[in-house]
Amino acid sequence: MERVYGVAGMTCEHCVRAVSSEVGDVDGVTAVVVDLRARTVVVSGDRFSDDAVAAAIEEAGYQLATTGARRE
């Protein structure tokens, strides 16, 4: 499964690293791609929850702007 999340407040490579690290630690996540220009995070994996991803984004210091759009 793949989901795309909008993230508010990302402005630099430090933001990319922080979000990638936190979201990458979520159970079930196998890949994280942060697009700084689009301010999105693409999360891939087998069994992860939107709530866990949102919590990881907040732990990194950012806010979820939109919930995950599913891509299979």
Helix content: 25-40%
* C-alpha geometry: globular
Averaged pLDDT: 92
Q: Could you name the CATH class?
A: Alpha Beta
Word description of this protein:
- The longest helix has 12 residues, at 13-24.
- The chain has 72 residues and is of the alpha+beta class.
- Helices cover 31% and strands 40% of the residues.
- It is globular, with a radius of gyration of 10 Å.
- The protein has helices at residues 13-24, 50-59, and strands at 2-8, 29-35, 40-45, 63-71.
- A 4-stranded antiparallel beta sheet has the order 2-3-1-4, with helices on one face.
- A hairpin with a 4-residue loop joins β2 (29-35) and β3 (40-45).
- The mean pLDDT is 92.
Supply the key terms.
single chain, 72 residues, alpha+beta, Alpha-Beta Plaits, four-stranded antiparallel β-sheet, 2 helices, 4 strands, 31% helix, globular
Structure at a glance:
The chain has 72 residues and is α+β, with helices and mostly antiparallel strands. Helices cover 31% and strands 40% of the residues. The protein has a single domain, classed as 2-Layer Sandwich (Alpha-Beta Plaits), CATH 3.30.70.100.
Please give the structural blueprint.
Blueprint: E1 2-8, H1 13-24, E2 29-35, E3 40-45, H2 50-59, E4 63-71
Antiparallel strand pairs: 1-3, 1-4, 2-3
